Amino acid sequence: MDLGLSYDDVLLVPKRSSIKSRKDVSTTSNLTKKIKIHVPIISANMDTVTESEMAISMAELGGVGIIHRFNTIEEQVDEVKKVKRYRNAIIENPLTVPIDLPITDLIHLGAKHKFSSFLVVDFNKKLVGIVTSRDVRFKQPGSLIVRDVMTPKDKLIVGMSSVSVNKAKKVMVNHKIEKLPIINDDWTVAGLITSKDIFKKALHPFSTLDSKERLMVGAAIGVKLTEIKRAKELIDAGVDFLVIDIAHGHSDHEIELLKKIKKEFPKIEVIAGNVCTPEGTRDLIKAGADCVKVGVGPGSTCVTRLVSGAGYPQISAIINCAKVADKLNVPIIADGGIKLSGDITKAIAAGASTVMLGSMLAGTEEAPGKTLIKNGKKIKIYRGMASFGAKLGKDSKNSVEDNISEYVPEGVEATVPYKGNVEEIIHQLVGGLRSGMSYVGAKNINEIRGKCEFVQITAGGLRESHPHDINTV
Ligand code: XMP
């Protein structure tokens, strides 16, 4: 029988290091065969962790988020679109409003899309003005329509569709304008450039961006063959990669779906999982996986190992799976069980290219769900996707007809402390990773990944690792 070890069972053995400052360490890594990210952290595809708000922040900070699938296709597509619209070099399909739209409707539209301005078009889709929230502020909407308050065409500065983004930026700076509508020769709308997008880029230089400088986002799909429809709609909405998300990914039906998706949509990269063995990793890669998600039962809300008796301790699972994946040149994600920044360093040293986090991000402002107060402390709800509550929520949205009384949960529902903005958490985690890399003398991910010496520790060693024999304040 093999010995299976997890994060708390091991430490990295420090090595001679030439690193003078942790800032000199690069954390850029491969998410999939083709996609690189500067911060090797992914927010989990769980309904209490990742919707558009989390995915936007994660991608801005250099990581990435995966929109969960426990919603209708329309809802999931909507979340993907919100991320893709958030930042653009040029917004190619800006939302437009008709010139005769009542101001009351405009206000609703602004609230729905979280936009403060819209381009105004006539019946032939030609640009006739721009309307911003400032134009309607302090006005009684009453019977007013867009035409009454907009800035009309003759007062607009516009750019032609042939203009380069750099030239457009100069025009905006010279005229001190925040929005530059881009038009075709016949004045139909070709796009929109906003100063906000330019500012966002300057604020977050390491963001995870696609070729059009939009934030990247992934989305999860289930394993039923009907999920091909979900995949297609997500791809049409601009999703950058898909995640086939099932608990036991080393299964015939996942392999079948993976092959089908890679055949029907050869350009989209697919992350497949979850597995915990070299055989599972190999089979998914052979079926076309561009990345494999590793982790059966390590998650903080998981009771899979207790309920089913199956699973594999996570550090050993990563080491075993990475050996196979490396030979086939495919990255792996260490998914679940990470509770400290040191665990991220250990996961990557064991062979993972990136890590997926649930509980560490579920308490942040950007995670879905309201912040609640319990015993005077702020908390948020975090639940396993195989928990009873998640199952009930999913069924109410997808009208699955399973008999709920026969359901055997493999996850629990919990609360986590409120943690403020995700940016602060990611900052701490990346700081910890950089520190770990400097302890083993690794200047980049290639120099640490799968190349470190681990020492197995005892309960005494673990006790020694934590603050001890003092009263912490
Ligand atoms: P952490 O430890 O970061 O783990 O909270 C997040 C990962 O846990 C997995 N997950 C589950 N596993 N039953 C399980 O056995 C569940 O109900 C469940 N929900 C989530 C998932 O891989 C996630 O990324």
Written overview of the protein:
- With 473 residues, this protein is α/β, with parallel strands linked by helices.
- The chain has 2 domains: 7-87 and 207-465, Aldolase class I (TIM Barrel), CATH 3.20.20.70; 96-194, CBS-domain (Roll).
- The protein is 35% helix and 19% strand.
- Helix 13 (341-350) crosses helix 16 (422-439).
- It binds xanthosine-5'-monophosphate.
CATH class of the largest domain: Alpha Beta
* CATH homology-level superfamily of the largest domain: Aldolase class I
CATH fold label of the largest domain: TIM Barrel
Low-confidence stretches: none
Quickly count the domains.
Answer: 2
Termini separation? 44 Å
Work out the helix count: 18
| Quantity of strands, as a count | 22
| C-alpha Rg (nearest Å) | 24 Å
Short description:
This protein is an alpha/beta fold and 473 residues long.
Q: Any key phrases for this structure?
A:
473 residues, four-stranded mixed beta sheet, 22 strands, alpha/beta, 2 domains, 19% strand, CBS-domain, TIM Barrel, binds xanthosine-5'-monophosphate, eight-stranded parallel β-barrel, 18 helices
